[in-house]
Design brief:
5 helices, alpha/beta, 300 residues, five-stranded mixed beta barrel
């Protein structure tokens, strides 16, 4: 009824000397059914299968299991001013960093990115590209063309293609221009702002839960929030939910949020690098003092 470990014994000829005798019965005995009993749930639906889960399935000899496929996300950038990083920069042009940022973001969510490149501010070309994106993507992610400019055609084209516009703006800063639409065949469209910080804030706040739901993951799909101690005074106008980017660190058991150095401007992509969280001032509030608690959204 008891197991002696080999390392607690010593071989002497044809005998075994027990160097450390057991003190209680059943030591190191693993009984059948001790870890899992038939009829109990083994793995619940909606989880991500990682190393431990795959090992469990192999252990119980389950070699064929139904899974949700990874969502396919079509990515396109709109704007005559955009060029690729390998092109020479000319006056009036800007680098399309969003295409690369969104590709990396989609990969990080376990989905499959399908980059469709830059589309000029031309209604015919934009309509053709959105139609192509609908055909290949479960979700379409576009940047630019959803604000109030003279060349912002996206919403008009979506309606022409039969989409239902669910959202056309949100009370969020940065990232107010946000178009969310759904096509009859089930494809979901997210038109997010072209400013690079606004684009990623929109992804972390809104697109991430949508990809999680499309992936078949269990609820809740909301982003992960952590309460932290604010390391500096933060101000907003209070008319919108306002986000500040910076770093969240754990110091002696207490999470602390430190603002990224430099301007908190939606075009300032530089100081967004190496951040890992967004702190939020809720709508209707315009001040959180240093040392007060603040809610933070995990981005990495």
């Amino acid at each position: 009824d008891t197991i002696i470990r080999q390392e607690d014994t010593e071989k002497m000829g044809d005998r075994v000397v027990i160097l450390q005798p057991p003190t209680t019965p059943q030591t190191f005995v693993r009984k059948k059914g001790a870890y899992y009993q038939g009829g109990d749930p083994l793995l619940r639906a909606g989880i991500t299968l990682c190393a431990a889960e795959i090992a469990v399935l192999a252990t119980v000899q389950v070699t064929d299991i139904p899974v949700k496929r990874r969502p396919q996300v079509a990515i396109l950038s709109t704007g005559d001013e955009l060029i690729n990083p390998n092109q020479p920069l000319q006056p009036g042009k800007i680098i399309d960093s969003n295409q690369y940022a969104l590709y990396a973001f989609v990969l990080s969510q376990g989905a499959i990115p399908i980059p469709l490149g830059i589309v000029p501010d031309n209604p015919t070309q934009l309509r053709d590209k959105i139609s192509q994106a609908m055909a290949v993507g479960d979700l379409v992610l576009s940047t630019g063309g959803v604000s109030v400019g003279s060349y912002d055609y996206v919403e008009q084209i979506l309606r022409e293609l039969g989409a239902t516009i669910e959202i056309n703006s949100v009370a969020v800063k940065p990232g107010k221009p946000l178009t969310v639409a759904k096509f009859p065949q089930g494809c979901v469209y997210f038109g997010i702002p072209g400013n690079p910080v606004s684009a990623l804030v929109s992804c972390w706040r809104f697109v991430q839960p949508a990809i999680a739901k499309l992936s078949g993951k269990e609820q809740p799909w909301i982003p992960q929030w952590i309460e932290a101690e604010n390391r500096q005074t933060l101000k907003s106008t209070g008319d919108r939910e306002t986000y500040f980017w910076g770093r969240l660190n754990l110091d002696r058991g207490v999470y602390q949020f430190s603002l990224a150095p430099g301007s908190q401007d939606s075009g300032n992509l530089i100081n967004l690098a190496q951040t890992n969280a967004l702190a939020v001032i809720p709508q209707g509030q315009n001040l959180i003092l240093e040392g007060e608690k603040i809610m933070t959204l995990i981005t990495k």
